[in-house]
Design brief:
alpha/beta, single chain, 421 residues, globular, Helix Hairpins
């Protein structure tokens, strides 16, 4: 919904909710009433439904504006099914700054926060954006991709911990197993979690094991067998070896379950993304691939009225820098208040596009020549990518690398000259 249209809605009432785990504080006031009603409602289905029915019976006609400092969670999901609510979800930092205006001492309580939210809604809703839930398919894809990313982070933590322990008592395993996220590594360490154990294995057993796990490089297999034969133990302290081996076994079992879970998420995401109406657009993005295409789709969403300009997405994603100027001083720094998952999505896409897109490669190296670090250059590239993707998304057309390169040439862009060199 356009911001200019928000204040034209005639609301029957204004409701503020300060959410919590077990009970939520609320305050509301009718549009033609000065009295504020406040109280608490438990975070239970029956209690919430009763509270909503009471609100509707008191204000039977018209929309009800509701502000809650939560972008997702049980409370919001429970209230989404009522079509008479118009949701406003302010940034928690904005609410904190608004609180400081009236409570310089830093005092804070749930009832007072609820009244502040109500005041913000009634007096400054023209500065807030109405939140419209995405369609069911997009919401599901969003949750799946975000949960998958969390599992990948957990995988990295487990792999780092496993690597650290192996380096301590069995460093040879890192070369004998290769990638620790593969099934070969898991089964190797479950079968032989010490150097002494693997040295007892016969060469024919080792060859059979590697071939069973799709290792067809005969030279590599023989090299690994020779390493096992020639290896000498880093440490001989049985107390350390036995304890470390047990820890390795526990981590490997966790890692195996985690890898299976990630695989299941990948299958569900691929199946859901296959039905996405804009799949052709996201598949046209150079370097995105099956992991990032659904995540970029989630970042933009299905509602094309959600963003009015590329700048809004750049700010929302955190790729747009923040400028602070006062007098003769001017500071430009990285934006920290943003969705970390969306920032990571565009950052990773920009990095993957460098070897796949000619102009992205040229732009990235231009930023490096100007003295930027790798990550700063990638963020700058992501900022530029969003402008291009926004136009394609708004006009519902796939990205065309040749078309964009021709546009750079026609406008006499400095980037076009660099690409031509």
């Amino acid at each position: 919904m356009d911001k200019s249209m928000q204040t034209e809605i005639h609301f029957a009432a204004f409701v503020a909710v300060d959410w919590a785990d077990q009970e939520h504080h609320f305050a509301y006031r009718g549009s033609d009433c000065k009295r504020i009603v406040s109280g608490k409602v438990q975070h239970k289905k029956e209690a919430l439904e009763g509270w909503v029915l009471q609100l509707r019976s008191e204000f039977p006609e018209g929309k009800i504006a509701l502000i809650v400092e939560q972008s997702r969670g049980g409370l919001l999901y429970a209230l989404m099914k009522y079509d008479f609510f118009v949701f406003y979800l302010p940034n928690p930092r904005s609410v904190a700054r608004y609180r400081e205006v009236f409570h310089c001492s830093g005092s804070k309580s749930d009832p007072s926060d609820t009244l502040l939210l109500l005041d913000l809604l009634e007096k400054h809703r023209d500065k807030l954006r109405v939140w419209n839930p995405e369609d069911s398919q997009t919401r599901r894809l969003r949750m799946l991709t975000e949960y998958r990313r969390r599992l990948v982070n957990d995988r990295s933590k487990l792999v780092n911990r496993l690597t650290s322990i192996l380096k301590c008592y069995f460093p040879e395993a890192l070369g004998l197993t290769g990638d620790l996220t593969k099934q070969l590594a898991a089964e190797f360490l479950l079968k032989w979690n010490t150097l002494a154990a693997v040295k007892k294995a016969k060469p024919v057993t080792l060859r059979r094991f590697y071939r069973k796990h799709h290792c067809r490089n005969t030279k590599l297999i023989e090299q690994r067998i020779q390493e096992i034969t020639n290896a000498t133990a880093l440490i001989t302290d049985e107390a350390i070896i036995s304890a470390s081996a047990q820890m390795v076994r526990v981590i490997v079992l966790q890692l195996s379950k985690l890898l299976e879970g990630i695989k299941q998420f990948d299958q569900q995401i691929a199946s859901l993304f296959e039905q996405h109406p804009d799949r052709a657009f996201y598949e046209s993005l150079p370097g995105a691939g099956p992991a990032l295409e659904p995540r970029i789709a989630v970042a933009f969403g299905s509602d094309r009225s959600r963003f009015d300009s590329a700048q809004e997405i750049q700010q929302f994603s955190g790729t747009a820098p923040v400028t602070r100027s006062s007098g003769n001083s001017k500071i430009v720094y990285r934006r920290w208040a943003c969705s970390k998952f969306i920032l990571q999505t565009f950052h990773e896409f920009a990095a993957h596009s460098i070897p796949q897109s000619r102009w992205a490669n040229a732009y990235y190296h231009l930023q490096l020549q100007r003295g930027k670090s790798h990550h700063a250059a990638v963020r700058s590239l992501a900022y530029k990518w969003i402008r291009i993707l926004f136009r394609c998304w708004k006009e519902n057309m796939p990205y065309n690398e040749s078309f964009y390169l021709n546009s750079l040439t026609k406008t006499g862009s400095h980037l076009a000259l660099l690409i031509a060199q």
